[in-house]
Amino acid sequence: MASSDTREPSKTRRSIVGRVPGTVVVLGFVSLLTDISTEMVTAVLPLFITVGLGLSPMAFGVLDSVYQAGTVAARVGGGYVADRFTRPKAVAVAGYGLGVIAKALLLPAAGVAALSAATGLDRIGKGLRTGPRDALIAGSGPPATLGRSFGVHRALDTLGALLGPVAAFGLMAAAPGDFDAVFVVSMCVAGLGVLLLIGKVEESRPSAAADAPRITLAGVARLVAGRARVRRILLTAAALSALTISDAFLYLVLLEGDAISTHVFPLMFLATGVVYLAAAVPFGRLADRFGRSRVFIAGHVMILLAYAVAGSGAGPVAAAATLALLGLYYAATDGVLPAATAAIVPAGYRATVISAVQTCVALGRSLAALSFGALWALTGPSTALWAFAAALAAVLAAVSLIGGLR
Questions:
Q1: Which tens digit of pLDDT belongs to each residue from 236-289?
Q2: Where are the bilayer-spanning segments (predicted)?
């Protein structure tokens, strides 16, 4: 897929971020603004539900379920529509726009139904935009620098996720209990991201002939059936994700083992994000230089080590090591996976296949959360963690034998 950057002089085509195309940087700042907006709401939503509205923790559980399900349902649809009509930017704008509308719906929200609609709409928007946005990133520069491009994007995205809670904290400190102030500022920040996307990212048709047939679901099925590398990446993403537990579960294991105390628990997310932010671009460059499959597998070795360290219960040192390993895992996998996917599929199918891979990841992690939670209830956190570590080690060995993402 061609980008508007290909029509610009080489001097303006490159950004200041290590020869990464300007489109990637703009999309990174769009994600930065969107993540500031989203994480502002995420930081105060539990308090808003239980204190501001007086709803029960069960209500929050319902909302969390909607939050997780919405993105899975929309991912493949957004990617397929973007490819079929060769309009990834238009679908991405629609997805980001739904995020703005979702923040607006929070203002009059007064019950579970309204909150579910707002959070569900936000997740649907995320599902719609992710594949098309990643297709725009993949199409904006040469294949040899995909890892670096995705690393820069994910670094800016993570920076937004770190700044969001800080912004929410500042607003709540200035106006205690004024949740509407947080929601209004969040909506405005998200709106700025949409305007940046509309105004600064141009969309061009793919380089193929203008009368080339549109992709179809049957064509997507033939692509998957006819390319072993595509099938392998889908299966690898699903299998490894099914054994990747969430950050919160790892932090809870540390809490149960007295490696951390309750008052520092919220800082765990921040610390992991800082490591991810620092390592995203270097790992993207390593993936371009030494192979995306190797870096992706190395990332899962890091989370395997994080399981072992967290399960050891060795106090604050174990907690610090777990946080570092978890952040490195994200840096080595989150941007590397779509980069590897984009490199092995035709440009016209990028958004669809990237979305399909991300759906496999989301479904796998959903399964991991359910199975780890059940195993914890039956055997305790330490036994559950070591069981997952053993299973992940076995799957990693199998993935390495079949060539990983290659």
A1: 999 999 999 888 788 888 888 878 777 676 678 788 889 999 999 999 999 999
A2: 16-34, 40-63, 155-175, 181-198, 233-254, 260-283, 295-321, 327-349, 356-378, 384-405
CA atoms of 44 and 53, how far apart (whole Å): 12
CA 93 to chain centre: 17
Q: How is residue 386 written in tokens?
A: 């070591």
pTM score, two decimals?
0.81
| Residue type for position 362 | A
SS3 of the chain: the string is CCEHHHHCCHHHHECCCCCCEHHHHHHHHHHHHHHHHHHHHHHHHHHHHHHHCCCCHHHHHHHHHHHHHHHHHHHHHHHHHHHHCCCHHHHHHHHHHHHHHHHHHHCCCCCHHHHHHHHHHHHHHHHHHHHHHHHHHHCCCCHHHHHHHHHHHHHHHHHHHHHHHHHHHHHHHHCCCCHHHHHHHHHHHHHHHHHHHHHHCCECCCCCCCCCCCCCHHHHHHHHHHCHHHHHHHHHHHHHHCCCCCHHHHHHHHHHCCCCCHHHHHHHHHHHHHHHHHHHHHHHHHHHHHCHHHHHHHHHHHHHHHHHHHHHCCCHHHHHHHHHHHHHHHHHHCCHHHHHHHCCCCHHHHHHHHHHHHHHHHHHHHHHHHHHHHHHHHHCHHHHHHHHHHHHHHHHHHHHHHCCCC
User: What are the distances in angstroms from CA 281 to CA 24, 38, 164, 272, 287?
Assistant: 13, 23, 21, 15, 10
Q: Which domains, ranges and CATH numbers included, belong to the chain?
A: 4-200 (1.20.1250.20), 217-402 (1.20.1250.20)
Phi, psi for residue 202 in degrees, rounded to 5: -90, 155
* Residue whose C-alpha is closest to residue 153's, from 327, 326, 281, 14: 281
pLDDT digit string, tens, across residues 351-371: 999 999 988 988 888 888 888
